[in-house]
Write a structure and sequence with these properties.
By secondary structure, this protein is α/β, with parallel strands linked by helices. It is built from 24 helices and 23 strands. Among the domains are: 110 residues, no CATH class; 122 residues, 3-Layer(aba) Sandwich (Rossmann fold), CATH 3.40.50. A 13-stranded parallel β-sheet has the order 9-10-11-13-15-16-17-18-19-20-21-22-23, with helices on one face. The chain has a five-stranded parallel β-sheet with strand order 2-3-4-1-5, with helices on both faces. A three-stranded antiparallel β-sheet has the order 6-8-7. Helix 2 packs parallel to helix 5 and helix 14 runs antiparallel to helix 16. The longest helix has 34 residues.
C-alpha cells in the first residue's frame, strides 16, 4: 500500500471537518461547502476501502491517487484560509469564494473520469490473486510446523505448545465481527474512543474476564477509521502474554514512539522525554497479565497514548472500560452463528433446547463460540446430553473442556496459592445468587487463617482480576463497615471453572464436596461412597425440602469438615444428621431461598458443635434457645437475617450470655417481629459489635447496656419505632462507632453523649434532630459525623471545639439488595 493511499484518506477526513465548520459558521460559503461535502462523502468509502485493502498498487494508479491527494490537500489549505478570513475584508472574501468554486469543479472533473472505480477494481483483482498465493503459503506453513514441533522458541516455550495456546484463544471466524457482537461492540468502541481522544488520558485500559471479547474490541479499535485519523495512522498493536520477552517489547515500543531504532539499552522512558514528539501515537498492549509488565512497557512521552488490555484492572477506574457480556438476543445470535452457520435457530430444531444451551453460557462470547462449535452438526440427543452436563457445571464435551475451561483457567495462574483457593471456594454457592460478603470473609478467616483485613483485600483482588463482581457500595472498605448486606456475584462460567477444578478426583478425597445445582436429593455418587470417610473441608448442599427419609441413604462421615453450607427452598427443613459427625465444624451457613421463613427440625444437633465459631441463619424460624442443651462455648459470630425471632430471646430462665459466652459479633437484620432485646444480652462481656438493623418493630433497648464493656460498634439503623436511646449508652467505655441512620422517630441523642471519649464516628442520616448537643464538645476522639444537610448546624460548635472533625452531608441512599430474587 502506498503512502498516498493514507494521505488521501486522512486529508479527505480533515477536509470534511473543515467544510462542516464553514457550513455552520461562514454563510457566504455555505452552499458551495455543502456541495463539496456531498462530493467528498460520496468518495470517502471508496478511498477507505483502497486505503485499508493492504494491496500495493502499480505506479500509474499510485500517481492517480496522488493527483487526488494533492487536490484535497489544496482544498484543506483553502478551507483553513476561509475559516481565518476577516469578515470586513470583502475583497479577500470574494477571492476565496471563487477558489472554493474552482475546488468543487476540480474534484467533479476528477470523479467524471471514474478513476477511483478503476483503481478499486484493480484492488479487488490484486487481492484475489494474493489470496491464492496465501493459501499456498498456509499449506507450506502447516508442513513446516510438523517438522519444527519439537524446536525451542524464544522464552523457552515450544512451538507446538505455542500453537495450542493460539488455538485455544483463536476466534471462530464466521464473518464480520460486528455482526457477532452487535450493539455491545459499538458501545465499547465509542466509550474507549472518548477516553482515547481525551487529551489528559495517557494510559487507558480495557478490562474484563477471560473470553468476554477484550481483544476483539482492541482489534476493532486498531482498525477504526477515527482512531487511525486521530493518531495519524501511527498505531502499534503488541501481544504481551503471560511469559513476555520484555526487553524485546521495550525496544520495539521505543523504536515506534521515538523513531530511533537499535538503541541499546533502551532509555528509562518513565522520565519525561524531550524529543518533541509532534504526532499522536497509540500503543495497544494486549494480554497484559501483571502490573510489573505494564510498568516496564509504559512511558511518559507527549503525544503517546497506551491502551492496556487485561483480565485485571491495571489502570485507574475512570480510565478503564469494563467489557460486559452480550445481551440475550446478541448471545443467541452468536451461538447460532457458530452452531448452525446462521444467526437464527433453523426450522425444525428444538428451539427451547437451543435457548437453554445458549443461556448456560451467560452471554460470554468465548463460551458461546466454543460451545456452539462443539455442538455443530451434532444430533439432538447429543445436545440434550451436553445441556445436562452444562447444568451440572461440567464441560459439554472434551473440546469444550480444552478450549473454554483451560482458557479460563489461565486467569488463575498468576494468583498466589491462598487467593486461588479463595476463588475455588466460590463454587460452594448456588448459581445466579448473590453471595453475602460477610459469609465469604468469615469462611476465609476460618479455613485459610486470614486476618479480616487480608480477607477483604483478597476479595478486592479477585474483583480487580474480574474473577468476581463486587457490589458497588460506598461503605466498602471504610472503617467500621458492615458486610452482611453487601454482596458479590460471579459469572456462571467462572463458577463452572471453580466446580470443574474442585470436582476432580474421587468424591471421598475432594477438598470441597459441592452440589452444582439444586436437586431434590443429594447426588447418588455421594451415597455410593459412604463406606469411607469424606475428606472434604467444605461441604455445600443445595436441595429442596428435606425430611428424615431424604437423609436416610446418606450416613456420611466428615471428620475434616470445617464449613457446611446448606441452601434450600422450602418452608420446613430437617437438618442433616451427619452434622453430629462434623466434630471440627467451624462455620455453619443455613440459607432458605424460599418465599417464607422455614421451620428447622432437629436443631438439638447443635449441641455437638463444640468448635463452631460462625453461625449464619437466613429466612428461618429461630428455634427456642432452651433446646440447645450445651452452650456453644466457641461461637464468635452469629447473624440472623430475615428470620422470625418468635420471642426466642424472651424466654424466662434463658441466659443468653451463658449460651454464647464467647460471642463477639451479633447481627440481627430484617427481623420484623423483633420487639425488644432481653436484658441478659447485656451480660455478654465479650460482645464487640452489636448490629440490630432494619427491624421496624424494635421500640426500645435494654437499660443496662453499660455492662457491654467490650462493645466498640453499635448499629441501629432503620429501626423505625425506636424513639430514644437509653442514657446508659453514654457509659460504654470503648464505643467507637454509632450508627442510628434512618431511625426516623429518634428525636435526639442522650444529653450526656459527651462521655463517650472513645467515639470516633457517628452516622445519623435521616435523623431529624433540632437541639444542639452541648456536651458533644467533649467528644475528643470524634473524627467523622454523617448527617443530613438540614441538621448539620447542631454540630457547628463541636466542629470548632474538636480539631480534625469532618461533618459530611451525605446523599440519601436506599438499598433493596435484601429483596433477593
Amino acid at each position: 500500500m502506498a503512502i498516498t493511499d493514507f494521505f488521501a484518506g486522512e486529508i479527505a477526513t480533515e477536509l470534511l471537518k473543515q467544510l462542516f465548520m464553514i457550513s455552520a459558521k461562514a454563510w457566504k460559503y455555505k452552499s458551495v461547502a455543502e456541495r463539496l461535502i456531498d462530493l467528498i462523502e460520496d468518495i470517502q468509502p471508496t478511498i477507505k476501502e483502497i486505503q485499508y485493502s493492504g494491496v500495493e498498487l502499480p505506479p500509474h494508479r499510485q500517481a492517480q491517487i496522488g493527483m487526488l491527494s494533492n487536490t484535497l490537500e489544496k482544498g484543506k489549505k483553502l478551507t483553513e484560509k476561509v475559516l481565518s478570513a476577516r469578515r470586513w475584508n470583502v475583497y479577500r472574501q470574494l477571492t476565496l469564494a471563487r477558489k472554493m468554486e474552482k475546488l468543487e469543479k476540480d474534484i467533479s472533473n476528477f470523479l467524471k473520469n471514474q478513476i477511483l472505480t478503476h483503481i478499486l477494481a484493480d484492488v479487488h483483482l490484486l487481492r484475489a490473486n494474493s489470496d491464492v498465493r496465501f493459501d499456498r503459503v498456509d499449506r507450506s506453513l502447516e508442513m513446516m510446523t510438523e517438522h519444527l514441533g519439537s524446536m525451542k522458541i524464544g522464552g523457552g516455550g515450544m512451538i507446538r505448545e505455542a500453537m495450542k495456546i493460539a488455538e485455544a484463544t483463536m476466534e471462530i471466524e464466521m464473518g464480520n465481527e460486528e455482526e457477532k457482537f452487535g450493539v455491545g461492540l459499538e458501545i465499547g468502541k465509542r466509550k474507549v474512543k472518548k477516553m482515547m481522544f481525551s487529551a489528559e488520558r495517557g494510559l487507558i485500559g480495557i478490562s474484563g474476564m477471560g473470553g468476554v471479547g477484550k481483544t476483539t474490541l482492541a482489534r476493532e479499535l486498531e482498525r477504526d477509521v477515527e482512531v487511525q485519523c486521530h493518531f495519524e495512522n501511527k498505531v502499534l498493536f503488541l501481544t504481551v502474554s503471560q511469559s513476555p520477552m520484555l526487553e524485546e517489547l521495550r525496544a520495539h515500543i521505543w523504536a515506534f514512539v521515538s523513531g530511533y531504532e537499535g538503541v541499546n539499552p533502551v532509555p528509562n522512558w518513565n522520565l519525561q522525554y524531550e524529543g518533541g514528539v509532534k504526532t499522536q501515537k497509540l500503543v495497544i498492549l494486549d494480554d497484559v497479565w501483571t502490573r510489573e509488565a505494564l510498568d516496564c512497557l509504559t512511558f511518559n512521552i507527549p503525544g503517546c497514548t497506551t491502551l492496556v488490555v487485561s483480565r485485571s484492572k491495571l489502570t485507574e477506574p475512570k480510565a478503564t472500560y469494563d467489557v460486559e457480556v452480550l445481551r440475550e438476543d446478541e448471545a443467541l445470535s452468536l451461538f447460532c452463528l457458530c452452531a448452525f452457520g446462521q444467526k437464527t435457530i433453523p426450522p425444525g430444531f428444538d428451539k427451547s433446547m437451543v435457548e437453554q444451551v445458549a443461556g448456560e453460557c451467560k452471554g460470554l462470547p468465548l463460551a458461546l463460540k466454543v460451545t456452539g462449535a462443539s455442538l455443530k452438526e451434532r444430533p439432538e440427543m447429543y445436545w440434550k446430553g451436553a445441556l445436562q452436563r452444562l447444568q451440572k457445571g461440567e464441560p459439554a464435551d472434551e473440546t469444550h473442556e480444552t478450549r473454554l475451561l483451560h482458557q479460563m483457567e489461565a486467569s488463575l495462574e498468576n494468583l498466589d496459592p491462598t487467593t486461588r483457593e479463595c476463588f475455588l471456594d466460590l463454587g460452594a454457592f448456588p448459581e445466579d445468587r448473590k453471595i453475602p460478603v460477610d459469609v465469604l470473609i468469615n469462611m476465609w478467616i476460618e479455613i485459610h487463617d486470614l486476618e479480616e483485613a487480608i480477607a477483604f483485600a483478597t476479595l478486592v483482588d479477585l474483583s480487580h482480576k474480574n474473577l468476581l463482581t463486587l457490589g458497588k457500595d460506598p461503605r466498602l472498605g471504610s472503617s467500621y463497615a458492615s458486610y452482611y448486606d453487601v454482596f458479590v456475584t460471579q459469572h456462571d462460567v467462572l463458577r463452572d471453572l471453580a466446580l470443574h477444578l474442585s470436582n476432580k478426583g474421587k468424591v471421598n478425597i475432594r477438598k470441597r464436596l459441592l452440589m452444582p445445582k439444586r436437586e431434590k436429593a443429594l447426588p447418588k455418587e455421594w451415597g455410593r461412597n459412604i463406606d469411607e470417610p469424606y475428606r472434604a473441608q467444605i461441604v455445600s448442599i443445595h436441595t429442596e425440602e428435606m425430611d428424615e427419609m431424604g437423609w436416610s441413604d446418606f450416613e456420611m462421615d466428615f471428620p475434616k469438615a470445617e464449613i457446611l453450607i446448606l441452601n434450600f427452598s422450602s418452608d420446613k427443613y430437617v437438618l442433616p444428621p451427619f452434622i453430629t459427625k462434623m466434630s471440627k465444624l467451624r462455620v455453619l451457613v443455613i440459607i432458605n431461598n424460599g418465599m417464607s421463613p422455614a421451620v428447622l427440625h432437629d436443631f438439638s444437633i447443635f449441641a455437638n458443635l463444640s468448635y463452631l465459631r460462625t453461625l449464619w441463619l437466613e429466612r428461618v424460624h429461630v428455634p427456642e434457645l432452651h433446646n440447645t442443651t450445651v452452650p456453644l462455648k466457641k461461637l464468635h459470630k452469629m447473624s440472623l437475617i430475615l428470620c422470625k425471632i418468635n420471642n426466642s430471646f424472651d424466654q424466662t430462665g434463658v441466659d443468653i450470655s451463658n449460651l454464647f459466652p464467647k460471642l463477639a459479633d451479633l447481627t440481627i437484620d430484617h427481623c420484623d417481629d423483633l420487639v425488644s432485646l432481653p436484658s441478659s444480652i447485656c451480660g455478654m462481656t465479650s460482645l464487640n459489635s452489636l448490629s440490630i438493623t432494619n427491624c421496624p418493630r424494635l421500640s426500645e433497648l435494654p437499660k443496662n447496656l453499660s455492662k457491654l464493656q467490650a462493645l466498640e460498634i453499635l448499629r441501629l439503623y432503620a429501626c423505625l419505632e425506636l424513639k430514644a436511646l437509653p442514657v446508659e449508652i453514654c457509659e460504654l467505655p470503648k464505643l467507637k462507632y454509632l450508627d442510628i441512620s434512618q431511625c426516623v422517630n429518634l428525636s435526639c441523642l442522650p444529653e450526656e453523649i459527651g462521655k463517650l471519649r472513645t467515639l470516633e464516628k457517628i452516622d445519623m442520616r435521616e435523623c431529624f434532630f433540632s437541639d444542639r448537643l452541648s456536651s458533644a464538645v467533649s467528644l475528643e476522639s470524634l473524627r467523622h459525623v454523617i448527617c443530613d444537610k438540614d441538621v448539620a448546624f447542631i454540630w457547628e460548635e463541636v466542629e470548632k471545639a474538636v480539631p480534625g472533625l469532618k461533618i459530611e452531608a451525605a446523599e440519601k441512599c436506599f438499598s433493596l439488595d435484601w429483596l433477593d430474587e
